[in-house]
Amino acid sequence: MYKRILDHLNAAILLFDRELTLTYINTAGEILLADSSRHLVGLSAHELFKSSDPALLMNLQQCLTMEEPLVDRELILDRMTLSVTINFSATPLLKNEQVNEILVELQQVDNHLRVSKEEQLLIQQNTARLLVRGLAHEIKNPLGGLRGAAQLLDLELDDPELKEYTQIIIAESDRLQGLMDKMLGPNKLPNKRALNIHEVLERVRQLVQAECSGNLTIKCDYDPSIPDIQADKDQLIQAILNIVRNAVQATEGKGNITIRTRIHRQMNIGRKRYKLAVKCDIIDNGPGIDADMMNQIFYPMMTGRADGTGLGLSIAQALINQHNGLIECNSEPGNTVFSIFLPVETGNE
Known about the structure:
alpha+beta, five-stranded antiparallel sheet, 12 strands, 44% helix, 28% strand, elongated
């Protein structure tokens, strides 16, 4: 019964006997060590942690001999070809007044930092979006009056040269009205249905390829095993199209863009944890994003281009947020990656 409970914990739980042989590991532990319990159970602590921080083995041995709980922080755990930073906690389990087993909890530190960063990013973006939406509403009211007055004046004027001025006022009012509508962001809830993410990505690829010359190369690296997600097709096309067009502009329409999909297991998005999530990367070989702009690129009206409105990425993030997802970005010269995370199923708090 207790093992069923441990399997649903976010922390990696490992159980060692007196000889420091692994007798149990939960699902989170399998994910952290990037291997199955079938391969891991029966291995000694030395075999599990031989290439990791020596403090891991020392802590286990000390917990066994001292018969006291022990906590250590920011240790390096090697798993396959990747190293992660963890917090370590060991608790001796006594039987007949001696240590019979050791319960070990491993918490991935960089994962907690990532979740915290996501939460902060979402809060900042939502705050900025609310401010911009409020400003857009305030501007739309007098703008409608301005346009109406210009139309009435246009009807009263007979001089074609004067009418040209009123037509400019009306045209510019319409242009600002369109800008305000974009600033207000998505104005309807997504109409979700079962959808294959690759159907959306192929539509985006076709649209962008048709808009650009033959100098642009778009490569696709899809994982065909990804299950359907519940999503609004039109909204996802709009969100991903905004990001891909951004990549096209960054490469000046003559670079390389890669669209890649992968499935992620036990994924945290904000405060929710999902068993499965789709990760879609849009990668370009453009000059990269300035470090000063990186923390602001998803804010409305923030752009690094003279002809940009700064709304494309903001709208994309808002649309993905409506699907309980998130967009992240990492950039260096020659390699900019926008990563879209979308849950496959309902998450647990």
